[in-house]
């Protein structure tokens, strides 16, 4: 695995790359990509960072694992490449956007358009084996991405963190809520959404209202 990460992030995270856990993680990921089918493609492992420089971050959305189906994962949480059917969680995200903002359901599932506006689409684990959810968890990625969250919290102000589901909500302890806004709800997966824990959270309008109140350009969701 080549750590091909945008310069503004490299400056913030350079100390992590020399730590023993990260070197072990690189060896593990390199071996996995050599011997098995893994996602996202190697060149897209750090897409969340390369699509959204540190200085541009306004909103952080935290996912758990990349999609593990063929052609889905592109390095941005909840995002899929153009031409790929929208997974259930993304469908529910888009339904909530349509309802919350009174706009049409988006046609493209590629969320790079959000990243380019300052939305850090961060999975806690950045790689996965094909068809094996969670297969790269507890190998070091979570240590790295927790550091990312803490760094954003410590070095920026007025960021909106969207924490969806129990896993993401646990990251709240890494965030200074006196400097930032935390919006949490159930996960957009059908299991949670159909039980009433997702729809109606209005996170997209609330995030924009918060940004606007701080004189920060809103996100075109």
Describe the structure.
The chain contains nine helices and six strands; from the N terminus they run ααβαβααββαβαβαα. With about 220 residues, the protein is of the alpha/beta class. The strands form two sheets. The protein has a four-stranded parallel β-sheet. The protein has a two-stranded antiparallel ribbon with strand order 1-4. The chain starts with 6 loop residues before the first helix and ends in an 8-residue tail after the last helix. The relative contact order is 0.16. The mean pLDDT is about 95.
Order of helical and strand elements: HHEHEHHEEHEHEHH
Estimate what percentage of residues fall within beta strands: 5-15%
Q: Which radius of gyration do the C-alpha atoms yield?
A: 17 Å
Give the helix level as a range of percent.
25-40%
Please render the helix and strand layout as text:
Blueprint: H1 7-17, H2 20-35, E1 38-39, H3 47-50, E2 59-63, H4 88-101, H5 112-115, E3 119-123, E4 128-129, H6 141-155, E5 160-164, H7 165-169, E6 181-185, H8 190-193, H9 203-213
Parallel strand pairs: 2-3, 2-5, 5-6
Antiparallel strand pairs: 1-4
Summary tags:
single chain, 221 residues, alpha/beta, 4-stranded parallel sheet, two-stranded antiparallel sheet, 9 helices, 6 strands, 38% helix, 11% strand, globular
Summarize the structure.
This protein has helices at 7-17, 20-35, 47-50, 88-101, 112-115, 141-155, 165-169, 190-193, 203-213, and strands at residues 38-39, 59-63, 119-123, 128-129, 160-164, 181-185. It has 221 residues and is an alpha/beta fold.
């Amino acid at each position: 695995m080549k750590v091909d990460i945008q310069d503004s992030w490299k400056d913030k995270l350079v100390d992590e790359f020399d730590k023993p856990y990260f070197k072990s993680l690189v060896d593990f990921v390199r071996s996995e990509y050599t011997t098995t089918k893994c996602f996202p493609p190697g060149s897209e492992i750090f897409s969340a960072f390369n699509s959204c420089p540190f200085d541009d971050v306004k909103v952080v959305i935290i996912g758990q694992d990349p999609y593990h189906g063929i052609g889905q994962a592109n390095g941005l949480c909840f995002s899929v490449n153009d031409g790929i059917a929208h997974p259930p969680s993304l469908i529910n995200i888009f339904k909530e956007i349509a309802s919350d903002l009174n706009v049409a359901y988006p046609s493209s599932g590629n969320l790079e358009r959000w990243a380019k506006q300052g939305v850090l689409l961060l999975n806690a684990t950045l790689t996965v084996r094909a068809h094996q959810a969670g297969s790269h968890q507890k190998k070091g990625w979570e240590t790295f991405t927790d550091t990312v969250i803490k760094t954003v919290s410590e070095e920026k102000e007025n960021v909106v963190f969207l924490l969806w589901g129990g896993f993401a909500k646990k990251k709240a302890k890494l965030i200074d809520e006196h400097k930032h806004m935390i919006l949490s709800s159930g996960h957009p997966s059908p299991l949670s959404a159909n039980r009433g824990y997702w729809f109606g959270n209005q996170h997209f309008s609330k995030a924009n209202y918060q940004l606007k109140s701080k004189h920060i350009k809103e996100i075109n969701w």
